[in-house]
Specification:
This protein is of the alpha+beta class. It is built from ten helices and four strands.
Length: 240
C-alpha cells in the first residue's frame, strides 16, 4: 500500500529544480505545485464537480506563497461544497469586471466629446464651439464623470434648474438638446440603453418664452413718426 504524500514545505518548494519534463509536487486535498521544464512554479488545484475532474490555476510561486495557496484551496473547496463551480464562478466575475470596466470608460463627457468630434464636419464651427462650451460649463461638472447608464432624468433636471435660476433660459434649452443628442447617438452606437432626456418636458423646467407686447400705434401722428423713423434707419434706402 502506497504511503500518503507528505504536505509541502517552503524548503522543498525552493529546492525544486526543473527537469526534462514538467512535474508535480503534491500538497494535500488536491493542491499541487507544477514545476515546468523552464523553471516556473505554478499552483494548481484539482477538484471534482458533478463527478467531473476540474483544474484551477491559483497563481505562481513565490507571488502566491504556500500559506496563501492553502487559503485559496479552502475557499474554493468551500464553494464546491456549496454547489458552486470555482472555474465558472471566476469566469463569471471576470466577465462582470470586464463589463464594469467598459461601462466606467463610457462616461458622459467622453461620449459627448466623441459625438461632437464625429459630427464636427456636418455643423458650423460656431455651432460646434457653442455646443462644446455649454457642455463644458454647465454639464460636465455635474454628470461628465458618470457612466452613461447612471445618468438619470433628475440629474438633467437639476442642471436645467440651476441654469434657469441664473437667468440663462435659452442656454439651458441648448444644453438640454446637446444632452439629448448625446444620448440618442450613444444608444444608436450601443453605448447606452436609453435616453433619460426623453422623460423631460423641457418647457416645464425652464418655463415658456415670454412674449413681448409692443404698444399699438393708432393715431396719425404716431404712424407718421414711425414711418419717418423707418425711412431714416441706416439699413433702409428709398427706391428711386
Amino acid at each position: 500500500m502506497a504511503s500518503p504524500s507528505l504536505p509541502l514545505t517552503d524548503t522543498k518548494i525552493k529546492n525544486a529544480k526543473p527537469k526534462e519534463k514538467d512535474y508535480k509536487l503534491s500538497d494535500t486535498r488536491g493542491l499541487y505545485l507544477l514545476v515546468t521544464k523552464s523553471g516556473g512554479k505554478h499552483w494548481k488545484l484539482k477538484y471534482y464537480f458533478e463527478t467531473k475532474e476540474q483544474k484551477l490555476s491559483l497563481g505562481a510561486y513565490p507571488e502566491i506563497s504556500l500559506l496563501k495557496a492553502r487559503e485559496l484551496r479552502e475557499i474554493y473547496k468551500s464553494q464546491v461544497a456549496n454547489g458552486v463551480n470555482p472555474v465558472k464562478e471566476l469566469k463569471r466575475k471576470k466577465e462582470a469586471n470586464k463589463a464594469l470596466a467598459a461601462k466606467n470608460l463610457n462616461t458622459f463627457e467622453k461620449l459627448a466629446r466623441e459625438r461632437l468630434l464625429k459630427v464636427e464636419d456636418g455643423i458650423s464651427e460656431t455651432h460646434h464651439k457653442r455646443s462644446l462650451k455649454g457642455l463644458e460649463n454647465d454639464c460636465f461638472p455635474f454628470i461628465g464623470h458618470l457612466p452613461m447608464d447612471e445618468v438619470k432624468a433628475s440629474h438633467i433636471i437639476e442642471i436645467l434648474q440651476i441654469m434657469t435660476k441664473r437667468g440663462v433660459r435659452d442656454s439651458a434649452k441648448k444644453v438640454y438638446y446637446s444632452i439629448s443628442k448625446t444620448f440618442v447617438w450613444a444608444v444608436a452606437n450601443g453605448h447606452a440603453e436609453r435616453n433619460p432626456a426623453s422623460d423631460i418636458q423641457v418647457s416645464e423646467i425652464i418655463g415658456k418664452a415670454k412674449v413681448k407686447n409692443y404698444v399699438t400705434i393708432v393715431d396719425n401722428e404716431g404712424i407718421k413718426n414711425l414711418l419717418t423713423s423707418i425711412e431714416e434707419y441706416p439699413g433702409c434706402q428709398r427706391r428711386s
